[in-house]
Amino acid sequence: MSDRNDHRTTEGAGRVSTEKSTATASDAAGAEAPLLELRDLHVFYGAIEALKGINLSVRTGEVVALLGANGAGKSTTLQTASGMIAPRQGGVLLHGERVDGIASHELVRFGIGHVPEGRRVFARMSVLENLHMGAYRFKRPDPRDLERVFHLFPRLAERRKQVAGTLSGGEQQMLAIGRALMGKPELLLLDEPSMGLAPLIVQQIFDILKEINEQGTTLLLVEQNASRALQLANRGYVLETGEMVMEGPAGELLADPRIRAAYLGEHVEAEHS
Amino acid sequence: MTAIDNTSTTGAPGPTGSKRAAEAARLRRTAWYSHPRFKRLVALMGVALVGAQVTGEQGTNRDIFHALRENMTGPGLWLWVGACLLIWVVREFLRAPVANAWSTARRAGTGPAERARTVWRRDPRLRMLALTALLVFLVVLPFLVSRHWQQVLVDQIAIYVLLAIGLNVVVGWAGMLDLGFIAFFAIGAYSAAFWTGSLPVAPPFELNNFAVIPIAVITCLVAGVLLGAPTLRLRGDYLAIVTLGFHEIVYLMAKNWVEFTGGTRGASVDRFSIDLGFFSYQWGLDPRPYYWLQLGFIVALLVLFIRLEHSRVGRAWTAIREDEVAAAATGVDTVRFKLLAFAIGASTSGVAGVVYASKLGFINSEFFIVLFSVLVLSYVIFGGMGSIPGVLLGTAILIWLPEFLRDTVPAQDRYMYLGALLVIMMIYRPQGLWPSRRRVRELHMAEEGTATRAMPAAGGRPATTGGDTPS
């Protein structure tokens, strides 16, 4: 974890250095296969085809944003990646190995952390008990992980004895992220971490996500807040009614007039495909 | 309503504004009859009426209103009303000084009760001592009560305690609603009958009653897993209906498969016996030896369950009860742990079935009607779901009450009073007699949730009117 961290310390502002560092990281791992790959994914809810052949890949050390309107299939994609939904066709590959069909609680042991939509903290457990639950796959929680989470989220350290259901929405989101980190994930899947939060809190959470990424955790982020997500991400994908309509470096997507029109609410003369 | 307000306020906002404030104040003020103090008085008067009726004369067949007439005019009523009034006065008007003294003592950490509490918390030996004393008391209990109560203790309380601690694992810890719990009890009882050679169909080889227990446990485990595996994906209400259906299948099999079970005519079962060559003992008609045997089973199971509750398994159950999706996301195998809880509950129920059949020496299908599932569930809820002392206490009290009432009210009315007690309990103390800490938290949070949701609504009224006035 720390050596990857060293690669990342050179990161300034550019995307270029990120690309470089991911390249070295994957070289060090000695594998060309991306960390996570979704290949031609078809997912059905009954007769409704929610995903119509999605391709997506996340390389080690990256932050990837998945954008789209309500009902586009973002959460479905994420839930398929985390094993909660089984695809009817296509595969989920982790380090080039097929993992679709593996239950989500097993995938946790493969190093996938899932921060579900709507936070879903254990409302009647204390903050500390929640974090301990996050480390359930280990015999006992690693105190260094706990220290790391409390360092990232000092607010949680202050309230470690408090019952999670009485935390504010932002604190609950922090707790959900912290809980996922307790399982030492290599890849963190985040489902709308900004949902229902004040802009200031969203900014805080995205800053912390950046820090988590710099410490060596790869992030796949589902977001409605397109500008914020693309500022954090290295690359982005855009989903529309179950189909991937765009992909590319985050900077390009952020500059794309169609994205600006559809997700950032700017009126640009461009036809919407 | 706001539209009407608008038209009236456009002329002169000042005076109407104050009038509206007065109106709001009037509406906000609680009416005297909805004041909690008054509600409590009404409830206590209700208790007084019921109490007078229960303790007073009972009805006759010739004049069904005889008892009501006598009890509602006699001195018993005034005694009850006076006592309840006294309780109300003490509670409403003398409570504050007492509570103040208590809380100051508590904050200072002084006061005899508080000091005793810290000592209690700090010293595990003291707790062990208290537990040992309780156990000794329970062991000698049959010597202290009459034969009738010994029978109640053995035939009802001990059996239902066994059932209740099993159901507590399913309902209280894993959070699944199981209405077919008695089905496993029946499977256990019929296993005992079958393997001791008491059913019309002969077993391959006959076994001692004690040797049947592991077989019954395995049978119930298998039955529990067979039922659970396809159905545990269902949640809450759906699972309850499925278990209810399962119970009905088992019950109707016991009733109608006469050539195997003996149906409603039943079958006599050998009682417990032990024969080790150098030592042999036969359990007979005296209830006390059964009681000690049952006590042994209960203590052994409790030790096992308490250890489970504080293990990783217990934490997994808590997580599943709180949020299944989040539990799966943190790496808890939800299906496996739910199945485990279901199987543990089922096998406990099976043990209770063996003990029951081997005590009574007779079983028939009517011992396993669905009412008993509901009763066990109500014992668990009454005592406090998920809390072992609560479940034990709740079961003991709810079985003791109808037996106690047997001497004071007509037999057919006994369960009516039980029902009234359950209703009152669920209104005023939904967490149960001796709730687990987490359940208390849960209910507190529900109350706080409504409080915070109500607050902005109340505050929102003046804000909107203020916004309307300028326009």
Please state roughly what percent of the residues of chain B sit in beta strands, choosing from under 5%, 5-15%, 15-25%, 25-35%, 35-45% or over 45%: under 5%
Structural class per helix/strand content of chain B?
Answer: mainly alpha
Q: Globular, elongated, flat, extended or rod-shaped: what is the shape of chain A?
A: globular
Beta-strand portion of chain A reads 15-25%
What is the CATH C-level name of the largest domain in chain B? Mainly Alpha
Give the second-level CATH assignment, the architecture of the largest domain in chain B: Orthogonal Bundle
> Biggest sheet of chain B: strands, sense, closure?
2 strands, antiparallel
CATH fold type of the domain at 2-111 and 185-263 in chain A: Rossmann fold
Total number of beta strands of chain B: 4
Strand order of the largest sheet of chain A: 6-7-8-3-9-10
Average of the residue pLDDT scores of chain A: 84
The biggest chain-chain interface is: A-B, 28 and 22 residues
CATH class of the domain at 2-111 and 185-263 in chain A: Alpha Beta
Please give the largest β-sheet of chain A: 6 strands, mixed
Keywords (chain B): Cell membrane, Membrane, Transmembrane, Transmembrane helix
Biased composition (Low complexity) (chain B): 7-18
Protein name (chain B): Branched-chain amino acid ABC transporter permease
Subcellular location (chain B): Cell membrane
